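Newbie here. two chains, one complex. Structure please?
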Amino acid sequence: QKEVEQDPGPLSVPEGAIVSLNCTYSNSAFQYFMWYRQYSRKGPELLMYTYSSGNKEDGRFTAQVDKSSKYISLFIRDSQPSDSATYLCARGYSGGGADGLTFGKGTHLIIQP
Amino acid sequence: DVKVTQSSRYLVKRTGEKVFLECVQDMDHENMFWYRQDPGLGLRLIYFSYDVKMKEKGDIPEGYSVSREKKERFSLILESASTNQTSMYLCASSLPTSYEQYFGPGTRLTVT
């Protein structure tokens, strides 16, 4: 079983809708979780990261971790066409990022104007 | 503005050729990484380095080697390119205790 599972989509929603992107992970030892956004023909860029469980909010974006169900979510409020991209969840071990990240396959999101 | 640059955006090589992919970062980061990205498989870690002359295998190191002679430069080497190494290659860098990795734009390598 891959460590981080993610539905590749595509997920298509109308502009202004609330978007929910999800991942599941297999190892309860994971403590750091990240969301990266990747536009077409670009490298990924970090959107948000969370430690352990709970919510973290940044503008229109909310990251949520539910350790009991091993579920990671990213919510986008008031979605815009500029949010159209591939969203990658990732996990890291505690102690820093030196050992690299394990990514999900990414969900391709399309926001229709 | 932080920057990770990769030597080529597109590269076409023949089977059996030795291929060098270069990555340079200007952020004085200790950690550097090489990933490959394939449809349906996502991003997978090939090698990483946390210091000059240091290297560690990632999840899929077979068929690859790396070199880090200077802090700002991390090279990925395909000793004898094969068609199954056709992929998008992404380089990244980060500070030692940070999960924020800064990625380059990628090199799309085609091996024929």
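Moderator note: Chain A has no helices and eleven strands. Residues 10 and 108 of chain A are 5 Å apart (CA to CA). Thread marked as resolved.
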